[in-house]
Automatic annotation (TrEMBL):
GO terms for molecular function: oxidoreductase activity. Pfam families: OCD_Mu_crystall. GO terms for cellular component: cytoplasm. This is Ornithine cyclodeaminase. It comes from the Bacteria. Belongs to the ornithine cyclodeaminase/mu-crystallin family. GO terms for biological process: carboxylic acid metabolic process. InterPro entries: NAD(P)-bd_dom_sf, ODC_Mu_crystall, ODC_N.
């Protein structure tokens, strides 16, 4: 007789948020990057959508031998934004690393959003000035409010500025962030003015043209680039890249997907040898991060499967008696 199948628990967005407070999640990701783990290159497939921009399918596996295995199945449909729907949808599946039994299903979109914001904050822990107080978030989608929350967990942020193409959305988001974080907020109409005022600039858009220009970056600024997850996208110009000490999450992911850096390379302004360090080097102490108060730093993330795995593991362990 076949072994009876037990019901696999599903963790929704509220449960994931409750199990992954920012300090705990940020530290878990830091430990994940220095752990002995496996995270093969993600599988990426184009999905044609009649009459709309092509979509993307992603499969992202990762595992820690003898302990845990997980895989994220995700879709990115950029045209969903026109209808006010989420562009990114995903589900995460967690398995026992010793026997392969499925342990849990999770809201992959929430896993992705929280680990992405936490990874940006983790990088800022090494790259933003310790006295950074003003954060500018560029974009009005799902990630900017999470980026504000996560950055406030690693720096004493007291002012959050918001810029978006839609001024009304930017104003509403600024009000929301102010209420959630008890900080001063405001929507900026002129992006250059906002960039020049900010200690940290965090971009989370799907732009295909440069938004933040290198000429606007003041000494000591930390530039966090979360969007531009394909070679065709970019959130900054080549001058922003060349003026900065450039850090990445992983080299393999950056070479395949970091649109800002790929554009700069295609313009003969940058090369992969110019990357200062990746997150594993920062988290292990192999590189100290920011070298001076006046240095302009840039962190380009495209996401790594180990980030998803540790966020999912943290969520699952929070629900078990030994977690």
């Amino acid at each position: 007789m076949s072994e009876p199948q037990s019901t696999i628990p599903f963790f929704d967005a509220d449960q994931i948020r409750g199990a992954t407070p920012w300090p705990r999640l940020i530290e878990a990701i830091a430990q994940g990057f220095v752990s002995t783990h496996h995270a093969p290159d993600r599988h990426i497939h184009d999905l044609a959508v009649p009459g709309e921009v092509d979509a993307t399918a992603l499969l992202m596996p990762a595992w820690i031998e003898g302990e845990i295995y997980g895989v994220k199945l995700a879709t990115i449909f950029p045209s969903n934004n026109k209808a006010g729907a989420r562009a990114v949808n995903a589900i995460y599946v967690l398995f026992d690393g010793m026997n392969g039994k499925p342990l849990a299903l999770m809201d992959g979109g929430e896993i992705t959003a929280r680990r992405t914001a936490a990874t940006s904050a983790l990088a800022a822990r090494y790259l933003a000035r310790e006295d950074a107080r003003t954060l500018l978030v560029v974009g009005t989608g799902r990630l900017p409010p999470l980026l504000a929350q996560a950055h406030k967990a690693v720096r004493d942020i007291d002012t959050v500025l918001v810029w978006g193409r839609n001024g009304e959305k930017a104003e509403k988001l600024a009000q929301r962030i102010g209420a959630e974080l008890d900080v001063e907020t405001g929507a900026v109409k002129d992006l250059e003015v906002g960039v020049r005022q900010a200690d940290i600039v965090s971009c989370a858009t799907i732009s295909r043209e440069a938004l933040v220009l290198g000429d606007w970056l003041e000494p000591g600024t930390h530039l966090d680039l979360v969007g531009a997850f394909t070679p065709l996208m970019r959130e900054t110009d080549a001058k922003a890249v060349t003026r900065s000490a450039v850090f990445i999450d992983t080299l393999g992911g950056a070479k395949a997907e970091a649109g800002d850096l790929i554009h700069a390379i295609n313009e003969a302004a940058f090369g992969w040898d110019d990357v200062v360090a990746d997150l594993p080097a920062l988290c292990s102490g192999a590189h100290k991060g920011r070298s001076s108060a006046d240095e302009i730093t840039l962190f380009k993330s495209v996401g790594a499967a180990i980030e998803d795995l540790v966020a999912a593991r943290l969520t699952y362990k929070a629900s078990t008696p030994t977690g």
